[in-house]
Amino acid sequence: MLGIIGAMEEEVVKIKAEMENPAVEEIAGMRFYKGTIGGKETVVVQSGIGKVNAAICSQILIDRFGVSALVNTGIAGSLMNAINIGDVVLSTDAVHHDMDATIFGCKPGHVPRLDTLGFPADQKLVELAGECCRRVNPGIGVFTGRVLTGDQFIADNDKKAWMIETFNGACVEMEGAAIAQTAYRNGVPFLIIREISDKADGSAQMDYSEFEKNAIECSVRLVLELISKYE
User: Fold this and answer.
1) Residues 6+ positions from 84 with CB-CB distance below 8 Å
2) Tens of pLDDT along 107-164?
């Protein structure tokens, strides 16, 4: 059973609309919709924005609903010239770009006393999502790469350049690494799907509202196809 997480209502409302016989349970101020989509048992939830909300939501899905994998869908800013607005990024791993314990000898982004910098996504989910995306969203770019996460909206060229140099990230957003870390600690497979809505630079204010709707629609098509093909 997949647990599908979106930070914003816009990211999950269309997925919930496809659910048959939904049962709703409210926990920690979040509404968890459990039912079937395409004949597959699924839980869909809006986590809220930011890392704490995302981590709480992920742990509830694991503990209370016993999901077999977590899929986080949403939008992000591109960090690579080759990845354009409207393209999709599938996580190879995820890193907290705002974690700084360097005073203790850790690398930027490394959570102290964990044995990894990046939390690795499930390769089978990455491959399946790539196949699904190319099928339902023909003509858009599909990339795999590192997802960077922090409790910040990035719209600054200098900050963007630092993240590229330091982490070699593909995109930046506000929830993925928290979900990835929770999955990692629990031994649960995960995948982060990000539709690119802006370039994480000074153009974000101009681009964001124009491309958000199309970005979410592409993500929804991908997630529904992924659910139908997941075993």
Assistant:
1) 78, 141, 196
2) 999 999 999 999 999 999 999 999 999 999 998 999 999 999 999 988 888 899 999 9
Identify whether 26 is a catalytic site residue: no
Which is the catalytic residue, given 10, 173, 195, 198? 198
Which residue among the candidates 10, 11, 87, 122 is catalytic per the annotation? 11
| Region for residue 224 given its phi and psi (left: phi exceeds 0; alpha: psi -120 to 50; beta: otherwise) | alpha
CA distances for 137 relative to 63, 133, 140, 142, 174, angstroms: 33, 5, 6, 9, 24
Residue 99's nearest CA partner among 15, 163, 3 is 163
Pull the structure tokens for residue 214.
């199309």
Q: What is the rounded CA–CA span in Å between residue 43 and residue 58?
A: 11
Q: Say what angle helices 51-65 and 176-186 make with each other, to 10 degrees.
A: 30
198 catalytically annotated: yes
CATH of the domain at 118: 3.40.50.1580
Whole-number Cα distances in Å, 190 to 6, 56, 213: 14, 15, 25
What residue numbers bound the domain in which 21 lies? 2-229
Count of domains observed in the chain: 1
What is the reported pTM?
A: 0.93
